[in-house]
Write a structure and sequence with these properties.
With 871 residues, the chain is an alpha/beta fold. The chain has 4 domains: 15-91, no CATH class; 105-416, Glycogen Phosphorylase B (Rossmann fold, 3-Layer(aba) Sandwich); 430-683, Rossmann fold (3-Layer(aba) Sandwich); 750-867, Sandwich (Immunoglobulin-like), CATH 2.60.40. Bound molecules: pyridoxal-5'-phosphate. Residues 129-130, 133, 512, 582-584, 587, 609-611, 614 line the site of pyridoxal-5'-phosphate. Phosphorylase is an important allosteric enzyme in carbohydrate metabolism. Enzymes from different sources differ in their regulatory mechanisms and in their natural substrates. However, all known phosphorylases share catalytic and structural properties.
Length: 871
C-alpha cells in the first residue's frame, strides 16, 4: 500500500555520540577524508549501502551498534578530536582575516553569492553540471580561506533528474522526491521558534511564500529557498520542484524567488544570526539578476533614494559573472512577461516597470526588441563583470560589445577570472596519501608546496596511477552490470561484463553534460578508425564516457543513443563503456582513474570547462581543443591540443577535420608514449608529462586561487565603491546619479573640433616627441567632467591602432565660446607605422571603467592619420 504521507524519524543518538550529528550536518565532511573515515568506521557496510551519506547512515545504523560505539572510548576520543578540529577550522584566523589585518585591501564585511545551482556533494543533488559545481567549489574554497561569504540558492524538491537507459539506449529520467529532513540542512527559524518565511508578490494579488533552509559548508552558510510550504497554493508550491524544469513562466518564478526572495532571505539570516549584512552581491550567471532590482527597491523605500541614485548605490556593490558564449545559453524572457510581473497590480511604486524593462533591453544592433535579456540586465546592474577564462573574457567583450558602442572590444568593461576547482574535493585520496607519504606534505595547498612533487619517485607515481585505473575498472564493471540489469538484461547474459576494460590499457575519459557544442559523438565521426584504435593489437585504448542530456533536448538524447549503440557492439564493448547518471560521485571516481581526459568542444563555446582541471590535479593528462582554460594554460608539454578547424563553416566538414586530428594524435603521440617502457618497465616519458602537468597546472587550477582573485580584483574594489557611495547617508550615490544624468544630457554637444600636431610630420625617429593640440567643445559640461585623451600606438594596414596607449591631455586655454584647447606630448618609443587619435570620455573618480557610460566623442573627420614610418 502506498503511504499518503511520509516523515523521517531521526535516529536518537546517545549523548556520547552527539558530535556525530555535528559532523554530519557540516558539509565539510564532503571534502575531509578523516571525517568520512569516522563515518565509515560507524558501520562500514551501512556506510556503503547508503551511498556514503552521513545523514542516511545515522538514520540506518542499528541502536545496538550505536550503544557499542558509545562505550568505545577509542572511537569517542577520535570523534571528539574530529569535532574539535572542525570547530577550530570554523573559527580560526585564515587567509582573509590575515589580509584584513594587514590592511592591504579594505575587504568586505560579507559577500552574498547567488547561484541557481550548487554542487556541494552528490548527496545534495542541487546541480546539473559545471555551473553548480563551480558554485560549490567557490563556497568550499571561500570557507578554506575564511572569506565571509553567504551562498544563496533554491532547494529543488526533486533536484536534477536521475538518468538511466532504455534497452534501446534512449535516456530516461526519474525525479525522486527529496525529503529535506533527510538532507544535511536545517530550517531557519525566527527568534520565537516559528519557521522563517520570505514572501514576494505575484500578479493578481497573489503572494509567493518560501521557507529557508541552511546548509553549512564548512564556515560558509548556504541559504536555500523552498516554495513547498502549506500557505502557498498548489501552483506556487511547485515553483521550486525541480532544476531547469518547466516552461518560461516557471523559470521566471524561480528567478524571481532566487533574486528578490534571496536578498530577503539574506537580510533575515543576518538579522537572526547577528552577522554583518553583505557589502557585495555576486550573481553567478544571470539567473539571480533580479537581486539588483530588490536592492534598488531597498535603497528607494528604506533610504528614500530616487531610482537613479538607488541604481548607483546597488550597482557599486554588485558583481556579475557571465558563463556562456552560447546564445541559447543566455537567459531571455518575453518583454511582455516581465511587464506583467513588475507592472500592473504587482508594480513596485519606487521601481517603475519601464525602468526595469530598460535594464534588460537588447538595445544594440541585432538585438531583439521583444525580449528581456537577463545577461544584459546583469551587466547593467553590476558595476563589475567578468568572464571565466582569458579567452571567454575576450569572447564576452566582443559578444556584449554592443552595449558600449564606440569602444574597442578591449575596452569593454568585462574582465576575466579563470575558474578553478576545489582540490580537497577533487583529488583522489590515494594521490593525497601519496603526497603525504613520499613528500611529507599533508596537503598541497600553496603554490610552493607543489615543488614537493620532485620527491615522489617515478615508481610511486606509476603505481598510484595503476591502482586508480584498477579501481575504476572494478567500479565500471559494477556499474555496467547494474545498468544492464536495469535495461532488462538477465544475469545469465552478463558474463562478459567481468572482463570489460583492462587495468593496463590506456584509459581515456570523456564526461560532461551533452549540449551539442560539447560534441559527445565527435569520436564517432569515423567509427572504423575509432574501432581500430580500441582494438589495436599492441597499443589499444579504452574509453569511459558519461553525461546527461537536458530532459527537453531530444538532440542530445539521440547523441547518447548513437554512442550507446556503438558501445553495445560485442566487437568493442570490452573497450568502450557509457556510464549512466553522471554526477559528482561518478566524476570523483572516474577522473582519477583515467590516463587522459578528452574534451572536444566547438571552440570558443566552452567558457572555461573545469573537469580537465580536476584531471590535471590527479595527474590525468588533458587532450583537448584549445578552448576555455586549456587555451590559456596548455604549454606544449602538459598534454595535447586538438587543432580547431576555425573558419570552416560546414559543421560536418569541421567535425571531420577535427576528429581526424584527434585520431592522429591518439595514434601517433598519446598511445605510443603511454606504451613506451624503459628498462625498469616504466613509461618514463609519460610520467614526465604527468609530473609536469601536476607541477605546472596544480597551483593554477585551484579554486582557492580563483576565490583570491575574486576577492582582490572584484569584491574588494566593489566594497570600496559601495562604502563610498553609502557614506554620509548615500550622498555620493545621489551625486553620482545626478552627474551621470547631466553628462548624458549634455553629451550630444561634446565635439572634438580640431586636432593639430607638431614635431613629427611624415617621418619621425625613435625618441622624437610629438605634441598634440586640439580644440574641444564641451557644451554645457565642464572640463572637470571629461577626460580628453590622445590615443596612440602602432597601426595596421587599415589604420586601426593596435594595443593603444592613452595620454590625458591638459587644458591649455578656455574660450568664451565654450571651447577649450587641450595639449600634450608623447615620445615615440618604437619604430614602424604609428597613428593617433583624440577622444573625449566622461570622467568621474567613482567610475570603475572609462567605458562605463558607453559615451565617447571622437573627431568628425579622421584627425590622426598615419604619419609614415618612424625610423
Ligand atoms: C566538473 C563537473 C562538470 C563540469 O565539467 P566540464 O568539463 O566543465 O563540462 C560537470 N558535471 C560534473 C558531475 C562534474 O563533476
Amino acid at each position: 500500500m502506498r503511504a499518503i504521507r511520509r516523515f523521517t524519524v531521526r535516529a536518537a543518538l546517545p549523548a556520547e555520540l552527539l558530535p556525530l550529528g555535528e559532523l554530519a550536518t557540516n558539509l565539510r565532511w564532503s571534502w575531509h577524508a578523516d571525517t568520512r573515515a569516522i563515518f565509515a568506521a560507524v558501520d562500514p557496510t551501512t556506510w556503503d549501502a547508503v551511498g556514503q551519506d552521513p545523514m542516511k547512515l545515522l538514520g540506518a545504523v542499528s541502536t545496538t551498534r550505536l550503544s557499542e560505539l558509545a562505550a568505545d572510548t577509542e572511537f569517542r576520543a577520535r570523534l571528539d578530536a574530529a569535532v574539535a578540529d572542525l570547530r577550530s577550522y570554523c573559527t580560526e584566523e585564515r587567509w582573509y582575516q590575515r589580509n584584513e589585518q594587514a590592511g592591504e585591501h579594505p575587504l568586505p564585511r560579507a559577500i552574498a553569492y547567488f547561484s541557481p545551482e550548487f554542487g556541494i556533494t552528490a548527496v545534495l543533488p542541487q546541480y546539473s553540471g559545471g555551473l553548480g559545481i563551480l558554485a560549490g567549489d567557490h563556497l568550499k574554497a571561500a570557507s578554506d580561506l575564511g572569506v565571509p561569504i553567504i551562498g544563496v540558492g533554491l532547494l529543488y524538491r526533486r533536484g536534477y533528474f536521475i538518468q538511466s537507459l532504455s534497452r534501446e539506449g534512449w535516456q530516461e529520467e526519474r525525479y525522486p522526491v527529496l525529503d529535506p529532513h533527510e538532507l544535511p540542512i536545517e530550517a531557519l527559524r525566527e527568534a520565537d521558534g516559528s519557521l522563517l518565511r520570505v514572501r514576494i508578490g505575484l500578479p493578481g494579488g497573489r503572494t509567493l511564500s518560501a521557507q529557508v533552509w541552511k546548509a553549512q559548508v564548512g564556515r560558509v552558510p548556504l541559504l536555500l529557498l523552498d516554495s513547498d510550504v502549506e500557505e502557498n497554493g498548489p501552483f506556487e508550491r511547485e515553483i521550486t520542484d525541480r532544476l531547469y524544469g518547466g516552461g518560461t513562466e516557471h523559470r521566471l518564478h524561480q528567478e524571481l524567488l532566487l533574486g528578490i526572495g534571496g536578498v530577503r532571505a539574506v537580510r533575515a539570516y543576518c538579522r537572526l544570526s547577528g552577522t554583518p549584512d553583505p557589502e557585495v552581491f555576486h550573481t553567478n550567471e544571470g539567473h539571480a539578476g533580479f537581486l539588483g532590482i530588490e536592492r534598488i527597491r531597498e535603497y528607494a523605500d528604506e533610504d528614500g533614494l530616487p531610482f537613479d541614485a538607488a541604481l548607483e548605490a546597488a550597482r557599486a556593490g554588485t558583481v556579475f559573472t557571465t558563463h556562456t558564449p552560447v546564445p541559447a545559453g543566455i537567459d531571455r524572457f518575453p518583454r511582455e512577461l516581465i511587464a506583467t510581473y513588475f507592472g500592473g497590480d504587482n508594480a513596485i511604486a519606487s521601481v517603475p516597470v519601464e525602468r526595469i524593462l530598460e535594464l534588460g533591453a537588447e538595445t544594440y544592433s541585432g538585438g531583439d526588441p521583444t525580449v528581456f535579456n537577463m545577461a544584459v540586465m546583469g551587466l547593467r546592474l553590476a558595476q563589475r563583470a567578468n568572464g571565466v577564462s582569458l579567452l571567454h573574457g575576450a569572447v564576452s567583450r566582443e559578444m556584449f560589445g554592443g552595449l558600449w558602442p564606440g569602444f574597442d572590444p578591449d575596452e569593454v568593461p568585462i574582465t576575466s577570472i579563470t575558474n578553478g576547482v576545489h582540490a580537497p574535493t577533487w583529488t583522489a585520496p590515494e594521490a593525497i596519501e601519496l603526497a603525504r607519504r613520499e613528500a611529507g606534505q599533508a596537503f598541497i595547498a600553496t603554490a610552493e608546496d607543489w615543488g614537493a612533487l620532485d620527491d615522489v619517485s617515478d615508481r610511486a607515481l606509476f603505481d598510484v596511477g595503476r591502482l586508480l585505473r584498477e579501481r575504476l575498472v572494478q567500479s565500471v564493471r559494477r556499474r555496467l552490470r547494474a545498468q544492464w540489469l536495469q535495461r532488462g538484461a538477465s544475469e545469465a547474459e552478463l558474463g562478459w561484463v567481468n572482463t570489460v576494460l583492462d587495468p593496463d590499457v590506456l584509459t581515456i575519459g570523456f564526461a560532461r553534460r551533452v549540449p551539442s557544442y560539447k560534441r559527445l559523438t565527435l569520436m564517432l565521426t569515423d567509427p572504423e578508425r575509432l574501432q581500430h584504435l580500441l582494438l589495436h593489437p599492441e597499443r589499444p585504448i579504452q574509453l569511459v564516457i558519461a553525461g546527461k542530456a537536458h530532459p527537453a533536448d531530444d538532440g542530445g538524447k539521440r547523441l547518447i543513443q548513437e554512442l550507446v549503440r556503438f558501445a553495445d557492439d560485442p566487437a568493442v564493448r570490452h573497450r568502450i563503456v557509457f556510464l549512466t547518471d553522471y554526477d559528482m560521485g561518478l566524476a570523483a571516481e572516474m577522473i582519477p582513474g583515467c590516463d587522459v581526459w578528452l574534451n572536444n568542444p566547438l571552440r570558443p563555446l566552452e567558457a572555461c570547462g573545469t573537469s580537465g582541471m580536476k584531471a590535471a590535479l590527479n595527474g590525468c593528462l588533458n587532450l583537448s581543443v584549445l578552448d576555455g582554460w586549456w587555451d590559456e594554460w596548455y604549454d606544449g608539454a602538459n598534454g595535447w591540443a586538438i587543432p580547431s578547424a576555425t573558419g570552416v563553416d560546414d559543421p560536418e566538414r569541421r567535425d571531420e577535420l577535427e576528429s581526424s586530428a584527434l585520431y592522429d594524435l591518439i595514434e601517433t603521440s598519446v598511445a605510443p608514449r603511454f606504451y613506451e617502457r624503459d628498462d625498469s618497465g616504466l613509461p618514463a616519458r609519460w610520467l614526465e608529462m604527468v609530473r609536469h602537468t601536476i607541477g605546472s597546472l596544480g597551483p593554477k587550477v585551484l579554486a582557492s586561487r580563483m576565490v583570491q582573485d575574486y576577492v582582490n580584483q572584484l569584491y574588494a574594489p566593489a566594497a570600496v565603491s559601495s562604502r563610498e557611495l553609502a557614506d554620509d547617508k548615500l550622498s555620493l550615490a545621489r551625486e553620482l546619479a545626478s552627474w551621470k544624468s547631466r553628462v548624458r544630457g549634455g553629451w550630444e554637444a561634446v565635439r572634438v573640433d580640431h586636432v593639430e600636431v607638431s614635431g613629427a610630420v611624415d617621418v619621425a625617429s625613435v625618441g622624437d616627441e610629438v605634441s598634440v593640440s586640439c580644440l574641444v567643445s564641451l557644451g554645457s559640461l565642464d572640463p572637470a567632467d571629461v577626460d580628453v585623451q590622445l590615443v596612440y600606438g602602432r597601426v595596421d594596414e587599415s589604420d586601426q591602432i593596435l594595443a593603444p596607449q592613452t595620454l590625458s591631455l591638459t587644458v591649455a586655454e578656455q574660450f568664451d565660446s565654450g571651447r577649450s584647447r587641450y595639449e600634450g606630448t608623447v615620445a615615440l618609443r618604437n619604430s614602424g607605422p604609428f597613428g593617433y587619435s583624440v577622444r573625449v570620455l566622461p570622467a568621474h573618480r567613482l567610475l570603475a571603467s572609462p567605458a562605463e557610460l558607453g559615451l565617447v566623442a571622437v573627431p568628425m573627420a579622421p584627425a590622426g592619420m598615419t604619419d609614415g614610418p618612424v625610423r
